[in-house]
Every structure is written in structure tokens, then in C-alpha cells.
Specification:
The complex is a heterodimer.
Chain A (H helix, E strand, L loop, with lengths): L2 H40 L5 H16 L2 H11 L9 H26 L3 H9 L4 H31 L11 H12 L2 H34 L4
Chain B lengths: L5 H39 L5 H15 L3 H14 L6 H26 L3 H9 L4 H31 L11 H12 L3 H32 L4
Helix pairs in contact in B: 1-4, 1-6, 1-7, 1-8, 2-4, 3-4, 4-6, 6-8
Classes of the chains: A mainly alpha, B mainly alpha.
Chain lengths: 221, 222
């Protein structure tokens, strides 16, 4: 079977798998961003209990494997009465894992906003919340965007693991195709190229674009 | 916990600990491959031949932007299609070693670029050969700034070894899966796997930070 015949026959499944991967990536990214912001700021809270909760969360999710977390969420949480549908379990696991990594980026970026900015906000009598949202966070976002680009590529790659709990993403589809046709080079090779295109020619340019917009908004273009 | 059974825990713990040995072995072997191959990748990007530089650069980008689990499948299944049969261990080590070599080469690259230009000029003026310049002058200075990154990826490769279970390498995750399918109990094996990972990766990460400060102090860089 030539490669074009292969694509003709299995193109639909590969495409639908790619779509599932993209949707998973977007949902997991949104979850990771929310968790990273929350846990990152909690890590700097004056209350030691709040700080402790965030630290434990971050250490647990950074200290174990994504695959272990995924299996735990999918197979063990139901024993405690929390049952996720496999698709949900997939993006929740990926989002929670990468959110823990992102939390450290958020914390680092917030701490690297120059001190004068904090003092100026204080001098203008802004409330702590307003100071964070209007002054500190926008500048922190600009600082942390480049490492977030790398993190989102890690996230995209992480979604491939959900195939192991039978979510029909790209990885799962090519695994199935390989199982019936034994055309390993064609099926896995195609998937490798698609992941590469998604990471290099979609995600990376998208992050550059977001960076440019943020720079313009802060008047630093 | 709701129905955590301690007798079952003690029963499966020896099996899981034995598998932990395999996990550590896989991480160690994979890391050894990655450390050497990564240096080769980093040096290959500094050759004067543009074609070599570009090809290696793109290959690294490709490896870094595709999922490790897919690469493991690729290495394991594509070989037999062309008559090369690889054992799960061999295929797994090739895949994970290559993957982390790509990451480590970026770490080395940063380290090599941080060596001041004057060091190169001094080596040239002393008429040292390129190999001697690299091994006696440049790499010893490029190493300390690379240590933090290298340590992170040591922990990283350890945490990625569960992916080897997909092609049947009998490491921790694979054993936990086996226990789960034999006994229909998932709570204890998967939780224990998580705990074992935490107990190894957190102290290792802390140890690496200590080692890094020790090296810096030893080399008088603090």
C-alpha cells in the first residue's frame, strides 16, 4: 500500500484524532493556566496554611509522573465516588500536572516585577487585589510568556498519554491503525509529523502573536 | 481511607520495590545515553559545516516537539517492519535516550555559549588543538552552568520511565498495571507507585541542588 493510499483510507480517522488532540490541548491549557495562577499566587500568600496547600499540590504533581496521575485519577478516584468520564479525566490530569509546573513560572514572574511597581501601586492607595490585577500581573504575564510557550508544547505532548485510557485522540487512532494494518512507519510517522506541525507551526507562532499583543498593550512594542 | 487494605499493601510492596529497581535502571541507562549523545548533538551544532548544523538543529526541534510515548511506539514497532527486531528494553532505551539527548543538548548549548570568547582566543594563542580546547578548557567551564538543567532532566527522565510500560518494559507502572488486572484492586498499587515516585524524586531534586552549590563552591564560582 502506498503512503497516499494509506492517507486516503485512514485520513479521516487521523484527522478526527487530531481534532480531539487539539480540543484536549485547549481545555487542558485553560485548566493549567487557571491552576497555575491560583497556585502561584497562593504560594506567596502571607497565610502559612494557604501557602502549604499550594506547596503540597505543586510538589505532588511535579514529583510524580503524569502517567501515574492520569491512572490515579481515572482508576482510583472512582473508588472515592468521584467518577470522571475518560475524556474529562484526560484533560483534568494533563491540566493539573502542567498547572503545577506553571505555578512556579507564575511565582517567578510575579517576583521579578520590579519593586518600584509594587511601591508605586501602594503609594496610589490601590487595594491588594487591584494592585495585582492592574499593575503587577500584566507585567508578570509579559515576563512569563516565553517559558509558557515551552510549557504548552509539553502540555500538547502530554495529551498523547490520554490514549492509554482509550480517549480517541491522535495517538489512540494511530495505535489502532497500527494494530490492524501493521504499517507502523506510516501510522506512527504520520502522527509524529502532525504533532510536530501542531507544536512548531501552530502553538509557537500563536504564542509569539500573544506576546506581541501583550507588548503592544503595555506600550513596549 | 475508604477501603485501603494494609495486608494487601504489604503483599504487593515487595513486587513493587523490585520493579522500582528496574525503573531506576531504566532511568540510569537512559540518562547515560542522553548525557553522551546530548553532548554529541551540542557539539555537532557548532561545526563549521552549515548542512550538519541545520540538520541536527531541526532533528532536535523535531524530537523535542513530539510526544515521548509516540516515539517509544515508533522505535519499537517500526524496526520489525524492516526486519530489525528490538527488545522492549533496547527500543525503550533508544527512544528515551534520544528524547532526553535532545533536551540535554540545549542545556549544553547554553553552557557552551556562556564560556567567554577570551577563553577560545587564549586556547588558540596557546596553539591547542580543537579537541584539547574543548575537553581541557571549554567543557570544564561550560559544565557548572549546565548542572542545574542536567539535574532537572535526571529527575525528568525518572518520571518519564512509566511510559516504557506501554511496550512491556517491566518497570514500576507495568507491575502496578499487572497487579491491578490480576486482583482488580487499583487503589493500593497506583497509590504506592505515586508514593514511591515522590519518595525518590523529591530527595533527588534536593540532592541535586546541594550538589550544584557544592560544585560551584569547589570551583570558586560563588
Amino acid at each position: 500500500m502506498s503512503y497516499f493510499e494509506f492517507l486516503g483510507q485512514y485520513g479521516d480517522r487521523i484527522l478526527s484524532g487530531t481534532l480531539v488532540t487539539v480540543v484536549l490541548t485547549v481545555l487542558a491549557a485553560l485548566l493549567a493556566i487557571v491552576i497555575a495562577l491560583a497556585a502561584g499566587m497562593m504560594r506567596m500568600a502571607p497565610n502559612p496554611l494557604v501557602r502549604g496547600v499550594a506547596t503540597v499540590y505543586i510538589e505532588i504533581f511535579r514529583g510524580t509522573s503524569l502517567l501515574v496521575q492520569l491512572y490515579w485519577i481515572f482508576f482510583v478516584l472512582p473508588l472515592f465516588g468521584i467518577t470522571f468520564e475518560k475524556f474529562t479525566a484526560g484533560f483534568v490530569a494533563v491540566g493539573m500536572n502542567l498547572g503545577a509546573y506553571g505555578a512556579e513560572l507564575v511565582r517567578g514572574a510575579i517576583l521579578s516585577v520590579p519593586r518600584g511597581q509594587w511601591e508605586a501601586a501602594l503609594a496610589l492607595n490601590m487595594s491588594p487585589a487591584k494592585r495585582m490585577w492592574r499593575v503587577i500581573l500584566p507585567q508578570a504575564v509579559l515576563i512569563m510568556l516565553p517559558p509558557w510557550g515551552n510549557l504548552l508544547i509539553e502540555l500538547l505532548k502530554g495529551t498523547a498519554l490520554v490514549a492509554l485510557i482509550a480517549v480517541a485522540d491522535l495517538m489512540f487512532q494511530v495505535k489502532q491503525i497500527n494494530g490492524t494494518t501493521f504499517l507502523s512507519a506510516e501510522s506512527f510517522g504520520t502522527a509524529l509529523i502532525i504533532y510536530y506541525i501542531l507544536a512548531r507551526f501552530m502553538l509557537t507562532p500563536f504564542m509569539r502573536w500573544v506576546e506581541r499583543i501583550m507588548q503592544r498593550k503595555l506600550g513596549r512594542a | 481511607m475508604f477501603d485501603w487494605r494494609w495486608d494487601f499493601t504489604w503483599e504487593i510492596l515487595p513486587r513493587l520495590l523490585a520493579a522500582t529497581g528496574n525503573t531506576l535502571l531504566a532511568a540510569g541507562l537512559g540518562y547515560a545515553i542522553a548525557v553522551v549523545l546530548g553532548l554529541a548533538f551540542a557539539l555537532a551544532q557548532r561545526t563549521p559545516y552549515r548542512s550538519v548544523t541545520v540538520v541536527v538543529r531541526e532533528a532536535i526541534e523535531f524530537i523535542r516537539s513530539t510526544p515521548l510515548v509516540l516515539q517509544i511506539f515508533f522505535v519499537f514497532y517500526v524496526g520489525p517492519q524492516f526486519g530489525i527486531r528490538l527488545s522492549p528494553w533496547t527500543a525503550g532505551m533508544i527512544a528515551i535516550g534520544l528524547h532526553y539527548a535532545a533536551y540535554l543538548s540545549e542545556v549544553y548549548r547554553g553552557g557552551l555559549e556562556s564560556v567567554p570568547k577570551g577563553q577560545w582566543e587564549a586556547a588558540t594563542s596557546l596553539n591547542l588543538s580543537t579537541a584539547r580546547t574543548y575537553f581541557r578548557v571549554i567543557i570544564p567551564q561550560a559544565l557548572p552552568p549546565s548542572l542545574a538543567g542536567m539535574g532537572n532532566y535526571l529527575v525528568g527522565i525518572f518520571k518519564d520511565t512509566p511510559m516504557l510500560s506501554v511496550i512491556g518494559v517491566a518497570e514500576l507502572m507495568h507491575t502496578a498495571n499487572a497487579i491491578g488486572s490480576e486482583t482488580y484492586r487499583f487503589l493500593e498499587p497506583y497509590t504506592l507507585v505515586g508514593v514511591i515516585f515522590l519518595l525518590i524524586s523529591l530527595p533527588t531534586a534536593a540532592g541535586i541542588r546541594l550538589f550544584e552549590t557544592w560544585v560551584r563552591r569547589k570551583l570558586g564560582m560563588v
